Amino acid sequence: MLQRVIIAIDFSSASAQALAVAREHFCTATLRLLHVMRPSDVAAPGAAGATHTGTSPLASKDLRESAEKEALARLESWAQEGEECQIVVGNAAEEIMRFTEEWGADMIVMGTRGRSQLSNMLHGSATEWLIRHARQPVVVVHEVSMNDSTRAHLPPTEMND
Question: What PANTHER family does UniProt report for this protein, alphabetically (predicted)?
Fold first, then answer.
């Protein structure tokens, strides 16, 4: 029986659907929502790819803490009672695998947006990497039509209003 399940959340509709599927099918397990922030998002909140030059290390620390706090608040808005939330910074695939092993998770659940093969080649795919390298099973949820029972487990977002 599964005891610990990681749900990778990137705030896309695909990750919302993955969370709904995890809630419906793994309801007896401890669910931990995991969001991986890119280092560029931490360095310059609100301006992906931008960098701050000339700022003091204390200001950089404040920016990082602010970005992490904001992301955690957003993640907690997706969580239901009893679900745990975690924010980490780094490469999505590597951090999901590292955290899964550290926490002792039995399974990873994540969504996929079904990008083209060319897009995956150019940008990489955390999902594909985890399927090949994770030691735990990986459940991949595609953006698909959902029945009312599964839709009831979606997090509170604009997409299901």
Answer: STRESS RESPONSE PROTEIN NHAX, UNIVERSAL STRESS PROTEIN UP12
